[in-house]
Every structure is written in C-alpha cells, then in structure tokens.
Amino acid sequence: MYPVDNRNIWINNHVNNANSHYDYKRKKLKKVIRDMVYENAAICDEISLTQEKILIVREECKFLTKKLKMFEPQLDASIASVNTTQVKKSTPRKKATTNGVTPKPRRPAAKHKKNIIEVQEPITSGNVTIYNLGEIVYDTPFYYSDCAIYPAGYYASRTYAHFRNIFSKCTYHCKVIKAGLSPRFEIMDHDKHFKVTGLSTDECHSHLISLINKLLGAEDLIPANRNGDRFFGLTLPPVRMKLQEAPESKFCTGYIPLELQPDNHESELKAESDPAVSFEGLHNTLNRFRSRH
C-alpha cells in the first residue's frame, strides 16, 4: 500500500494528465477551425474574382456582337461585289493537227448534280409561302430533328406582326443556310431593317417574340413555346410530305416521318393559330386579355 502523501501525489498527477490531454485536443480543434476559416476566406475571394472575370467576358461578348452586326451588311456587300467581278477567260489553244486531220472535241464531263428539291410553284399554306425546299443534308444530325428536316437552301416567308408596330403586318423571310456541320437559320423582314441569325429556329424566333413582348410591355405575355420550326413552315404537312418523298430523307435516322392521317394534318393546321406564329391569333389573344382586365 502507498503512503497517504504518495497516493495524493499520484491522484493529482493523474488528474492533471487527463486535463492536459483535453487541452491538447482543444488546441488541435482551434487550429483546424482557424485553417478552415482561412481556406473559406480564400475560396470566397477566388469566387468573387471569377465572377468579376465572367462579367467582363459577358460585356466583351455583347460589345463584339454589336460590332459584328454593324459590319455584317458590309461583309455581305463585299462578298457580292467579289462574286460579280468578271474574270477574263484565257483563249483556248488550238489543238495540233495530225496529218491534216483535227481530232474530235471531247465531251465535257458531266457535273455532279446536287439533290435540290425544286419547287415549280410556291407552296402556300395559311400565312406561309415556301419558295425553295433546298437540299437535304443527311450526313450530319444537326440538319434534322425528330419532327422536322432542315434542308440547306430552304427559303420561305411568313406574314406576322411588325416588330415595331404589332397592329401592322410584316413579311418575314426565313432561310436555312448551310454552314459546315450545323446549319445557320435566319429571319429578316422585307425592308431589311430586322435581321437575326442563330444556330436554331427557336433562337431566331424567340428573339422576334421578345421584341413583340417589349412592345406589349410584358416579357412573357406571348410565350414562344419552341415554335421556331413552325414559324419557318418546316412542320407544315405539305412541306414535310414533299421532303419525305426525296430518297435522301431515308438516311435522316433521327427523323420520324409524318403519316398519311388527316388527324395529324388537322392538329398541325390548328397549331398555326398560335399567337407566336399567327397575326390573327396574336390579336385574338390580346383581345381576350383586354376583355378579362
């Protein structure tokens, strides 16, 4: 047995050692918390710097887009002037005769004929008139979707509300331009005061609808509802049936052909009264909205 004094010393040492253990843990936790606070502050600073860079890049993109729109008509004019310049043709050399007999001229090689779907007369359906069905491009999936084919060279026009005055009609020209692996879509008014290009029909159509909504004083009064293909006239039954008749349409693997059922045609024709694509449908919606308020 320990003496009384020695036992007290042992108890005090044991208690002090236990407190020192917890004190060590406390210091370690404080150090971890301090490091986490510093790391969190550094991450917040990095996020704020990244956000500032993103804002700067967005402003630069807007500025460059405005500059591009300013110079785009000049580029089109310069390209047109280059195409119209006449190139002097070199005079063909006379072929040598053999024993006084001139050889017969060879027939020129037959040029490769593009698979362009010609339209003898414009196709008119409601407010849409199709002038050219263009050429089906099937070797890249960006030239067709499940319910529409985007042929290169497609050209149509639609009558809709004017982007500056919704009470007057305006003729918009819709085009599908071949631009490499993916097409470029374009909507331009008859007077060439409005022109928008995009990578999809919905992008061009949404830009036009946003201008209409600004005139109405509301951002979402007339929703676009992904009606870009319909605005271009690509979902009209006569257009789809004409494109499906071309043999190249069989290679558009993601496209679902339109069946010969009158119900499908009627539903599509009813959809033509949507306020986002129809001048009459737009004003009917506005009249209903005014009567309610």
In short:
This protein has 293 residues and is of the alpha+beta class.
Textual characterization of the structure:
- The chain is an alpha+beta fold.
- It has 2 domains: 13-67; 123-291, Double Stranded RNA Binding Domain (2-Layer Sandwich), CATH 3.30.160.
- 45% of the residues lie in helices and 12% in strands.
- A 6-stranded antiparallel sheet has the order 1-2-3-4-5-6, with helices on one face.
- A hairpin with a 7-residue loop joins β3 (155-161) and β4.
- It is elongated.
- The model is unreliable at 84-90 and 107-113 (pLDDT under 50).
- This is Transforming growth factor beta regulator 1.
- Pfam families: FYRC, FYRN.
- Its main location: nucleus.
| Number of discrete domains | 2
Let me know the number of strands.
6
Strand content of the residues, in percent? 5-15%
- Please outline the major beta sheet: 6 strands, antiparallel
CATH topology annotation of the largest domain: Double Stranded RNA Binding Domain
| CATH class division of the largest domain | Alpha Beta
Number of helices: 6
How would you write the strand order of the largest sheet? Answer: 1-2-3-4-5-6
Helix content: 40-55%
- Could you state the order of secondary-structure elements as H and E? HEEEEEEHHHHH
Mind telling me the C-alpha Rg?
36 Å
Mean pLDDT: 80
Poorly predicted regions are: 84-90, 107-113
SS-derived structural category:
alpha+beta
Any guess at the CATH architecture of the largest domain?
Answer: 2-Layer Sandwich
Q: Tell me the distance between the termini.
A: 99 Å
Shape: elongated
